[in-house]
Amino acid sequence: MKSIDEHIQKDQTEILSAKAEGNNPKVRHLEEELHSLEEYKEHHPKDKHDPNALELFCDANPDEPECLVYDD
After folding, report:
1. Which of 8, 18, 19, 60 is 20 to 30 A from 69, comparing alpha carbons?
2. What is the predicted pLDDT for the residue at 25?
3. Contacts of 13 (CB under 8 A, 6+ apart)
């Protein structure tokens, strides 16, 4: 994806398709991803890039060891 808005739109479309197919595990996965993307967009309104999984995780969990940044 080129932007977070495209990713959100894609997930919304895929959720509808998965619901129509009765694929509940895929629906849950996509809804969780969509929620993370929407939170990221809310926290970073000027940032339009499509965040990766680590960026989404660190946005929601900034104190986790994987997300800490140390200055030398």
Report:
1. 8
2. 96
3. none
- Residue 71 domain-assigned (yes or no): no
Domain that holds residue 43: 4-62
- The token pair that represents 34 in the structure block: 């969509």
Q: Answer whether 6's CB lies under 8 Å from 34's CB.
A: no
CB-based contacts of 16, cutoff 8 Å, min separation 6: none
Residue 10: inside a domain: yes
User: Looking at the 3D structure of the chain, how many domains does it have?
Assistant: 1
Give domain status of residue 46, yes or no. Answer: yes
The residue among 54, 40, 49, 47 whose CA lies nearest residue 2 is 49
The string of pLDDT tens digits covering residues 19-53 is: 999 999 999 999 999 999 999 999 999 999 999 99
| 68: in domain | no
- State the pLDDT at residue 58: 96
